[in-house]
Design goal:
Structural class of chain A: mainly alpha
Radius of gyration of chain B: 19 Å
Strand content of chain A: under 5%
Strand order of the largest sheet of chain A: 1-2
Number of domains of chain B: 1
Radius of gyration of chain A: 19 Å
Number of strands of chain B: 2
Largest sheet of chain B: 2 strands, antiparallel
Strand content of chain B: under 5%
Helix content of chain B: over 70%
Oligomer: heterodimer
């Protein structure tokens, strides 16, 4: 592979494009864990809903650039709205309960959402085409490369920088970071922590749904698409450190490269390699590459 | 819950199960077999969740290992059942020993994540190691020993194995070790101050839980005459946790109630709609939000009221 720069280039680009797609999903998961301290099993289901909502929006608008944009934003907006209802109505009652109940709550959401998706859209497999302006390939000097995959490579860092800017440079971001450190103190200082929690859950869910909508043109849309994506997202946030945004960016890159490059050498066994990596990280550095070691480990 | 009502319940349950084959319904017999296997599986997880207070999200791995190993030993190596089943269970226990040593070093969410990672690893290997496991299609066509071929005799076999396992787990929960488990659950630090080797006890619990899960897996493989990769997937582990929680973790019989109810509901609801997971999800939401102590709580209240009269 390394003898042929063209193939190497394409493999590197494929790794990046997969990594950035996974990052968009994992970012929401790590955001929710960082602030709410909840491991959201339903994150894959949110991702799936995003893909289906985009599919339906595209059916109405027809195959156009604007339709694709509306599909992605609409997926985020609709999932965000649903997440708001779920968080305010149900999840918020569990914040002071045991971890296991919160975990099972999100597991229940998986079961419910999966069947609702089957009811609404059926069990068949769909596909979404890339928007017209991202079809075909563009010549990158070394080799032509599909525009849509390139688009994902660009979108990942843009979203990463946007979240970083929001977290580190805005007033709202400061409140979120404070909520991550000490929710009781933040509440005592007069911030409406409940609102913060809702905001985080909604943002995380919207990110997952937009990730799903963006992933749709490169994979099939079917009711089983969530169950392995959630494990990939878990692997990423574990590598990077639960709650760390930078960590999930790096984790996504590692998993992206492992999956694409690894499949050349390991063939289909690459899926096992990614689980081995998750195990190894948890054993050696349970708080991940960018998490804090001194943090209470629960 | 106190011991006596639970023992009475277990005794009644056992007597009822003794009567099942004489009702003459093959459907009922098969239903009871599955309910027993799922109850055993839920009971095994409760050693970890209820007694020691560790929530494993990868318990299905040991169920799957037990099942696949039994299938392999019986069919490929043509071993007699008396060798195949104990070997399969011991193999799962050996895996649990290695995995457990690594897992008990972590707490709460990290423990759950590591058990999840290991079970997905097992799932990945099952999917890809086609020559041994049959891959995606599962391990089909298990040769059963002749004496278990009829549904009747298989029923007695399952009842004997599940009954003995349950009795062992009951004795375990009442033993000194069981008391130590509960002490760890209630306050790990205090338990270690009292001289309990917390990690070691957690490991013993982990292996025991895996051992009984493997027995359940072994029975399931023989019942289905096959074993499928889905049995190790994370959703399967989730279902076991649900059964335990639905019944109630802080009692011995809770998981039996949970697993039985869940399975019987599944069978019933499947007759009307394909959307059983939706119903199960809604039940789970209800339990999590309204009845976090599980169904056993209802019985406890009822018992307390009866006792007062």
């Amino acid at each position: 592979m390394f003898a042929n720069p063209m193939i190497l280039f394409i493999q590197v680009m494929n790794s990046l494009s997969l990594a950035m797609n996974l990052f968009i999903i994992a970012a929401g998961l790590t955001l929710i864990f960082g602030v709410l301290r909840i491991v959201n099993f339903a994150h894959g289901a949110f991702y799936m809903v995003g893909a289906y909502v985009a599919l339906s929006i595209l059916r109405v608008t027809g195959d156009s650039n604007l339709g694709f944009l509306l599909g992605v934003l609409g997926a985020g907006a609709l999932m965000g709205a649903m997440a708001f209802v779920v968080e305010r109505g149900l999840l918020s009652r569990l914040y002071d309960k045991e971890h296991m109940l919160q975990l099972l709550f999100t597991f229940a959401l998986v079961l419910v959402i999966k069947d609702l998706v089957k009811m609404i859209w059926g069990s068949g497999q769909y596909s979404i085409g890339a928007p017209p302006f991202l079809r075909g390939a563009v010549n990158l000097g070394i080799s032509p490369y599909p525009k849509y995959a390139l688009f994902l490579c660009v979108m990942g860092p843009i979203i990463a920088v946007a979240i970083w800017f929001f977290m580190e440079r805005t007033r709202w971001g400061r409140i979120l970071r404070a909520a991550r450190e000490d929710r009781v103190m933040l509440n005592a200082l007069g911030t409406d922590v409940k609102l913060v929690y809702s905001g985080v859950f909604v943002t995380g869910a919207a990110l997952a749904a937009m990730g799903g909508a963006l992933a749709a043109p490169r994979s099939a849309v079917d009711p089983g698409m969530d169950s392995l994506v959630i494990i990939d997202a878990f692997i990423i946030v574990i590598i990077g450190g639960l709650g760390s945004l930078l960590g999930s960016f790096v984790g996504a890159l590692i998993l992206g490269f492992l999956t694409v490059m690894g499949s050349i050498y390991l063939k289909e066994w690459v899926i096992v390699a990614s689980y081995v990596m998750m195990v190894v990280i948890l054993l050696v550095r349970p708080w991940g590459l960018f998490g804090k070691a001194d943090e209470e480990r629960h | 819950m106190t011991s006596r009502p639970q023992l009475i319940f277990l005794a009644c349950l056992f007597l009822a199960l003794l009567a099942v084959p004489f009702l003459g319904s093959r459907y009922l017999t098969e239903l009871a077999v599955q309910v027993m296997i799922f109850s055993l599986l839920a009971l095994s997880l409760n050693i970890l969740v209820g007694h020691i207070g560790l929530v494993s999200f990868g318990h299905a791995a040991f169920f799957a290992i037990g099942g696949y190993a039994t299938a392999f030993f019986l069919t490929r190596w043509q071993l007699p059942l008396a060798a195949a089943m104990p070997m399969a269970v011991l193999l799962a226990a050996a895996f649990a020993l290695v995995i457990g040593v690594l897992c008990v070093r972590l707490k709460a969410i990290y423990f759950a994540m590591l058990t999840l990672a290991f079970s997905m690893l097992v799932w990945g290997i099952i999917i890809k190691w086609k020559p041994v496991t049959g891959g995606d299609d599962g391990f089909v066509g298990i040769t059963l020993p002749g004496m278990l071929a009829s549904p009747q005799s298989f029923y007695w076999f399952v009842l004997a194995v599940v009954g003995a396992s349950t009795a062992l787990m009951w004795l375990l929960s009442k033993s000194t070790m069981g008391q130590i488990f509960v002490a760890i659950r209630e306050n790990e630090t205090r338990a270690s101050f009292l001289g309990v080797n917390v990690r070691q006890m957690q490991l013993i619990g982990f292996v025991l839980a895996a051992l009984f899960a493997a027995i359940a897996g072994s029975l399931m493989a023989m019942y289905l005459r096959g074993m499928y990769p889905q049995s190790a997937f994370w959703t399967q582990s989730g279902h076991i946790v649900i059964s335990v929680l639905l019944g109630g973790v802080h009692s011995f019989v809770g998981p039996i109630l949970g697993a039985s109810l869940l399975y019987l509901l599944e069978v019933t609801i499947h007759q009307y709609t394909q959307y059983w997971p939706l119903v199960m999800g809604l039940i789970l939401l209800l339990v999590v939000l309204v009845l976090p102590e599980g169904l056993i709580e209802l019985f406890r209240k009822l018992y307390a009221r009866l006792g007062r009269k």
